[in-house]
Amino acid sequence: MSNILEHRTWRYATKKFDATKKVSDEDLETLLEATRLSASSYGLQPYHVLVISDQKVKEQLKPASWNQSQITDASHVIVFANATEFGEELVDDFLANVSETRNIPEEGLKGYSDFMKSKLIDLPTETKSNWTARQAYIAFGNLMQAAAELKIDTCPMEGFESDKYNEILGLEGKNLNAAVVLAVGYRSEEDETQHLPKVRKSKEELFTLI
């Protein structure tokens, strides 16, 4: 089996973390860089990522996470917060970065700027929020796979109250909303879930080759 499939087979949604084991600063930096390098529509990355190791903050988040122990036992809790609204500044800031990084005059990017703005700026607010959340999920998936490659366990979590997360983490008023959470750390030997066979649809059921 190739390493690609081995990593995906090894990974599972960890239900019980070993609270005594912490992700090293070096490995955490690798995970965050993998997240930063993730694909994003137009390259805009319309989200913000909060990396939480403070135990007091994790304790605050636990009741808003259906009291799931992963929140307090994991080494880090990583929250992907999508932009709920945006204007032309999203495109302008991105193209300023393009100009600086690639040494291209900003006026040379006007056509690309106009195209992106024509597709994004006038969308309804709900459509914008749904789109930015989907972008966050792309980075979320990349982070989860990068962790598996480092043999770091994760648990993807949607079982939480976004509004309470937003309040606790100070996201209110910043046009950000907690979209999805990833608990990161190392599995406990007591987590029986790790021994269960992975259950997925068969290839015949899942794929159609055209």
TrEMBL record:
Top-level taxon in the UniProt lineage: Bacteria
Record-level Gene Ontology MF annotations: oxidoreductase activity
Record's keyword terms, sorted: NADP, Oxidoreductase
Nitroreductase domain boundaries: 10-186
SUPFAM superfamilies listed in its UniProt record: FMN-dependent nitroreductase-like
Pfam families: Nitroreductase
Family label: Belongs to the nitroreductase family.
Protein name as catalogued: Nitroreductase
The species this protein was found in: Allomuricauda ruestringensis (strain DSM 13258 / CIP 107369 / LMG 19739 / B1) (Muricauda ruestringensis)
Species classification: Bacteria, Pseudomonadati, Bacteroidota, Flavobacteriia, Flavobacteriales
